Amino acid sequence: MQNILFDFDGTLANSGATVALATQAAFRDLSLPEPSHDTIAYYMGIPIETSFKAMAPEHDFTTAEYDRLLSSFRENAQSLERTQVTLFPDISAVLTHLKQAGRQLFIVTSKPTHTLNRNLKRLNIAHFFTDCIGSDQVTHYKPAPDGILILLDRYHLDPKQTVMVGDATHDLQMGKAAGVKTAAVTWGAHTTAALQSEKPDWLCQTTLDLKQL
Fold first, then answer.
1. Consecutive sets of 10 residues in the chain, 213 residues long: mean pLDDT of each?
2. Backbone angles phi, psi at 17, to 5 degrees
3. Separation CA 211–CA 96 (nearest Å)
4. Buried (b) or exposed (e) across 158-183, using 16+ Cβ within 10 A?
5. Backbone angles phi, psi at 200, to 5 degrees
6. Cβ(74)–Cβ(18) below 8 Å
7. Are 130 and 29 in contact (CB under 8 A)?
8. Cα–Cα distances in Å, from 48 out to 29, 72, 159, 183?
């Protein structure tokens, strides 16, 4: 594929512990029942603006209360990410290989763009990517195709030569909705069985498998 679009959390970066710990801390801060790790993993890939209400369906949030919940998560996540967010093995080598092979690399993530950029710079991989689309740049969140469609239009990308790579079913559903190829990675949030149910074009068992896209 000429154009490769990556999810970030659970695909390039091992940040699951950060998300889970920060989510549970935020719910505790507002005296709400803590979501389980399994529940948090299920909603990985969906922005917290949407997922947090789904994790507390019995609670009727006011706007101010929900804003406090989101702010608490972001504060907890930022304090944790320096020690908890790391690249998966060989990701830098894989990105170097793909870039040298002439691929255009992008990111479509549920993180706000400024948070993503902070992480990319700290992990020293920002220079690999032509552009990044965060949750603040779309009207409709994953699994809606907005993020991919922005890149297809902005860079005149051929959908037939474009693949969306992600660790969650929401990433694959987004890719299908945008009319591009999809590649599932098995080292992130969702099980292999759940990913296979979406019938991705590729199933990557190790990070080195990404070289074959």
1. 96 87 93 91 83 91 94 89 90 98 97 92 97 95 95 98 96 98 94 96 97 94
2. -65, -40
3. 10
4. eeeebbbbbbbbbbbbbbbbbebbbb
5. -65, 155
6. no
7. no
8. 16, 12, 28, 24
